[in-house]
Amino acid sequence: MKVIIPTALRKHTDGQNHLSVTATTVEDALNQVVTAHPELRSSLFDDANQLVSFVNVFVNDRNIRDLENEATPLNETDEILLVPAIAGG
């Protein structure tokens, strides 16, 4: 499956706009992503290894908070999209 990396986080993935993983849950997929690109960990997880509240994770256009959070099951054809909150003024 594909994990789509937004522009704001690509500096942590050597400019890659997506990563390929093989996972059965969102948690497994995100763990694979941060294992491959450790610089992403602080952008996705807090010190307690919980997904930070200012990053939304979507599986096929559905927010995982409306599904089963990190336990959301995945299929081989699913796409995961990471969407960090953007602040400005």
TrEMBL record:
PANTHER family: SULFUR CARRIER PROTEIN CYSO (PTHR38031:SF1), SULFUR CARRIER PROTEIN SLR0821-RELATED (PTHR38031)
Pfam families: ThiS
Top-level taxon in the UniProt lineage: Bacteria
Membrane-spanning segments: none
Protein's recorded name: Sulfur carrier protein CysO
InterPro entries: Beta-grasp_dom_sf, Mopterin_synth/thiamin_S_b, Sulfur_Carrier/Prot_Modifier, ThiS/MoaD-like
